[in-house]
Write a structure and sequence with these properties.
- This protein is an all-alpha fold.
- The chain has one domain (7-54, 66-316, 361-447).
- It has helices at residues 7-21, 31-53, 67-82, 95-104, 116-139, 143-169, 194-216, 225-252, 256-275, 281-302, 304-311, 319-333, 344-348, 368-376, 378-401, 407-422, 432-447, and strands spanning 174-175, 178-179.
- The chain is globular.
- The chain has 17 helices and two strands.
- Helix content is 66%, strand content 1%.
- It has a two-stranded antiparallel ribbon.
- The longest helix is centred in the middle third of the chain and has 28 residues, at 225-252.
- α12 (319-333) packs parallel to α14 (368-376) and α14 crosses α15.
Length: 454
């Protein structure tokens, strides 16, 4: 007889549903959709806090475990909010306001941010990501719920990937019901950009392979050969096949970066599983060779466009080096205060020069690490990045100190390596759907990185 769901279970299922539905409305990369995401995350946090205060639920992860990341994360929220104030000293404010005031002939309220409205939205999104992480860490502390989370993530991304492959095969150039206006001929699913969808499918590849690794379970008691084969066929092979199907979705996106970072994430996953004693070294080597052979076969059979893009100059030749050059120049002009969280598009206009001649609007720096520093300044920007690295470091430590369920920190490390590597050359981690999935996986991995109390 199945036990009834607890309040914690229901809250976790609601959180998981929110995370997995976020890619549906154009990856939540529109003001109305990220506002709805932020509202839903806030309501879930309030429901969890109310249930905790009234004693309806038991505590999850000790709040003291979250102190370090929180102390590094909160300055970004506070400073991002302060960047929209018009009461700060004039020496702190963005020079665009002085220029606008001179042009109009009367003073305008000046803020640190070059676009305070976008900064307000960015603060709201960042707060939602923080709430998702805290809820995932609290509710994902229970091993059963953590396993629900990884299965639901893999299954949901598989459905999104199948939808993308079908629409691509049928040459339906639509994002849901909307005619495509960009990336025609590329599989993008419910995303607009191919790189973002490729990274999304790559996260699904990692989740499926993680479930396959967990199903094989090198730490189980000795089994007879027949039992091992049965376990492999029932628990490992289906998730391996699902992972390879999602790898085809990565290839169909024709994103070079997404393919490369999926390889980085897969390598990280296998190494982490070996360090966490989920795989014996010889099994890890065999699995890695199998994955590499499958990826090579898929690339040869289905990756002609991606291979041609790898060998060619690409559509951003010259742009990224100049974007980085101008971003560094912007950082040098406001190293302490930044130019405004999420305000890159507006503030970058004052730095754009003839090195970027194409008629393209640059709304991201194509390097999320540098853009964070440009937006917030060195002190607060480094704090925000350090808060993520703190969590990643705890997950790495969890591979060694935990004796069970190490697959969760292993998956968190793999996803962090995938999105972190792509953030060097792209902005996919800044897409709300991917950011929410990232914080969800990190939260569960963080919760499962601490030894259970006896």
């Amino acid at each position: 007889m199945t036990s009834p769901l607890s309040v914690n279970d229901r809250l976790f299922l609601a959180l998981t549903a929110l995370v997995l539905l976020t890619p549906l409305p154009l990856a939540a990369n529109r003001p109305w959709s990220w506002s709805a995401l932020s509202l839903a995350a806030a309501l879930l946090a309030l429901a969890w806090a109310a249930a905790r205060l009234t004693g309806r639920i038991q505590g999850g992860l000790e709040l003291s475990r979250l102190t370090g990341p929180a102390l590094l994360f909160l300055p970004a929220l506070v400073w991002g909010w302060m960047q929209t104030w018009s009461i700060l000293p004039d020496s702190w404010t963005h020079p665009v306001w002085a220029e606008a005031s001179a042009a109009l002939g009367h003073p305008l309220p000046a803020t640190v941010s070059g676009d305070p409205e976008r900064t307000s939205h960015a603060v709201m999104r960042l707060g939602a990501y923080g709430l998702v992480f805290v809820l995932a860490a609290q509710l994902g502390r229970h091993g059963r719920r953590a396993r629900w989370g990884i299965r639901a993530l893999a299954a949901a991304i598989l459905l999104y990937g199948v939808h993308a492959l079908l629409t691509h095969a049928l040459e339906l150039e639509y994002v849901l019901w909307l005619p495509k206006w960009a990336y025609l001929g590329d599989a993008t699913g419910t995303f607009v950009g191919r790189a973002a969808f490729g990274a999304f499918a790559g996260v699904g590849v990692l989740a499926c392979f993680a479930l396959a690794v967990r199903g094989l379970g090198a730490t189980l008691p000795a089994m007879r050969p027949g039992e091992r084969v049965e376990r492999l066929l029932s628990r490992g092979v289906p998730w391996l096949m699902a992972g390879f199907l999602l790898l085809l979705a990565v290839l169909a996106s024709h994103s070079r970066g997404a393919l490369l970072v999926t390889g980085v994430g897969t390598t990280t996953l296998v190494l982490a599983a070996t360090i966490g004693r989920l795989l014996r070294p010889r099994h890890a080597a065999a699995l890695f060779l199998l994955l590499a052979a499958g990826a090579a076969a898929g690339l040869l059979a289905y990756g002609d466009v991606t291979l041609s893009r790898m060998s060619g100059e690409g559509d951003m030749i010259g742009d990224r080096p100049n974007l980085l050059r101008l971003t560094w120049a912007a950082i040098a002009d406001a190293p302490w205060s930044g130019h405004g969280l999420g305000a890159f598009e507006q503030t970058f206009l004052t730095y754009r020069d003839l090195g970027l001649p194409r008629p393209v609007i640059y709304d991201y720096a194509h390097n999320a690490w540098l853009e964070t520093i440009m937006d917030l300044g060195w002190p607060v920007g480094l704090c925000l990045l350090a808060s993520v690295l703190w969590v990643v470091a705890v997950c790495a430590r969890g591979l060694v100190v935990r004796r069970q369920d190490q697959i969760h920190p292993a998956l968190a490390l793999a996803v962090a390596s995938l999105l972190g590597a792509q953030a060097v050359v792209d902005f996919t981690v800044q897409i709300p759907a991917l950011a929410v999935i990232f914080t969800y996986v990190l939260g569960i991995g963080f919760a499962q990185s601490w030894p259970q109390r006896r």
